[in-house]
Amino acid sequence: MKQKKDWVTYQHDDVESQNHNHQNRELLFYRHVAEGNLEAIQENIANHEFLNSNGIGRLSRDLVQSFKYHFVISVALITRLCVDNGMEMEKAYRLSDFYIQQLDDIDTLEELEAVHDKMVLDYTNKMIVLHRSANLSRPMTECLNYIYSHLKERITVKDLAAYTSNSASYISRLFKEELGTSTSDYIRTAKLEASKNLLRYSDYSLVEIANYFSFTSQSHFCQLFQKETGLTPKKYREKYYGTHWKGTARDIMDITPSPENED
Fold it and tell me: Are residues 118 and 219 in the same domain?
């Protein structure tokens, strides 16, 4: 009987906690993760949406604990959606367990947000790789996995051939047949796409970004970037630079740049 009385009291005394977002807003975010929509996820993180308390229920009198509960709910729903969209079930749930266990050592909202951002980026990037490899041959899938794991290095078709135990000519032909582009063009585009993240969400200089992705020089990077996007890296940053990324650039691309200044 006491439980019923407590619920009745809660309904009338804690009205604000009942003003929840429409479920479509949350489902859209989870769908973006499952679809590998990196741009939408980056925007969500840049706007600090996880810590936006408007429209979410208060699940604990302790604010940090309340957001921890929301974190667990989020990772559970993301995990299920990613599994429904092709992620291996055991891999998805192990990833969920890994991030939930990190909550034990968190005492502040800032730390919690950083782990949340890493979590959603991790799932999103894994879904990107999964979608890319869905209709590709095994050697091509292996090539793409290698490329996205070694973007900061200089990658050649010989590296891909050695990694997949195939000839360089076979790998070159495979890229043309399955992706409609050359190996070098694909690698260059992948590096340039990744560099956009750092231009938009970090303060690292052009020379730091160019060095990180192993372009021969800053001028070479700028030339290729402008050819690809129609904008110089500087103009691109001026046009698209958003709210500072919470944390460091390591959270974006595991970058450890040298302290050099942009020209």
Answer: no
Output the pLDDT for position 7: 52
Phi, psi of 53 (to 5 degrees): -85, -5
**pLDDT over 70 percentage in the chain:** 82
For residues 141 and 129, the answer to whether their CB atoms sit within 8 Å is no
Residues 157 and 56 in one domain: no
Q: Tell the burial category of 177 from Cβ atoms under 10 Å away from its Cβ (0-12, 13-18, 19+).
A: exposed
Banded model confidence at residue 258, pLDDT cuts 50, 70, 90: very low
Q: How many domains does the chain have?
A: 2
CB under 8 Å to 210, separation ≥6 — which residues?
Answer: 217, 218, 220, 221, 222
- Domain limits for position 94: 15-133
User: What tokens appear for 78 in the block?
Assistant: 């993301």
Same domain, 195 and 115: no
CB contact set of 170 (below 8 Å; sequence gap of 6+): 139, 161
Report the C-alpha gap between 227 and 221 in whole angstroms.
10
10 pLDDT more than 60 = no
Residue 81, in any domain of the structure:
yes
Give the pLDDT band (50/70/90) at residue 263: very low
How many whole angstroms separate alpha carbon 33 and alpha carbon 39?
A: 10
Q: What is the pLDDT of residue 9?
A: 56
Neighbours of 106 (CB within 10 A): 17
